[in-house]
Amino acid sequence: MRKILCSLVVVGSLFVVPIAGHAFALAQDEAAEAPMLNADTKDVGSVDGIMAAIYDVISGAVGEVRDWDRMRSLFIEGGRLIPNTPRGPLLYGVEEYIARVDKAFTDNGFFEVELSRKSERYGNIVHVFSTYAARRTPDGEIFARGINSFQLVYKDERWWIVNIFWQGETPDTPIPDEYLK
């Protein structure tokens, strides 16, 4: 299959992701994913804890190296990060995502904060719509907003991120008021 190279930059949750490949980039082979790491119980002991941890781990000042092991510890084996782009969703495994954003995260200040959250739970699964805002500095001007759709599971006495699927706000897709309360 011939790959189409593009210089599209996805502005949305979990940073600005440089993309090279086809519209539906597939995640790396599961065997190539890093082993699951022990997580801090405050990060994975509750839905609030895991939500705070993921926003914290991706946020940081220019030059600040992110704690990728902490991020890895939040995801279940095979977990995915999925930006919805104008060409369609892109599917990344955790390692592939880290490899694609590591330099950009270090070279650029980026702080993503949760503005609002709507959650639904059934048994050991939780779906979270988390409205976000992105800035270059903690108090800087908002340059992007959108919604992260988290799928979480409670397994082995802790919470895990199964998927994060997100879409950035655009003039054609403004965030509804109900997701800003």
Q: Can you describe what's shown?
A:
It is built from four helices and nine strands; from the N terminus they run ββαααβββαββββ. The chain has 181 residues and is of the alpha+beta class. It has a single domain, classed as Nuclear Transport Factor 2, Chain: A, CATH 3.10.450. Strands 3, 4, 5, 6, 7, 8 and 9 form a seven-stranded mixed sheet that branches. It has a two-stranded antiparallel ribbon with strand order 1-2. Helix 2 packs antiparallel against helix 3.
Radius of gyration: 16 Å
Tally the structural domains. 1
Q: Sketch the major β-sheet.
A: 7 strands, mixed
Overall outline: globular
- The amount of beta strand, in percent, is 35-45%
CATH topology: Nuclear Transport Factor 2, Chain: A
Summarize the amount of helix as a percent range: 10-25%
Architecture (CATH level 2) name: Roll
Identify the CATH class: Alpha Beta
- Mean pLDDT, all residues: 85
Instruction: Give, in order, the helices and strands.
Output: EEHHHEEEHEEEE
Continuous helix count: 4
Characteristic terms for this protein:
4 helices, seven-stranded mixed β-sheet, 20% helix, disordered N terminus, 9 strands, Nuclear Transport Factor 2, Chain: A, globular
SSE topology sketch:
Blueprint lengths: L8 E4 L2 E4 L22 H4 L2 H12 L9 H7 E11 L2 E2 L2 E2 H14 L3 E12 L2 E11 L8 E12 L2 E11 L13
Parallel strand pairs: 3-9
Antiparallel strand pairs: 1-2, 3-4, 3-5, 6-7, 7-8, 8-9
Helix pairs in contact: 2-3
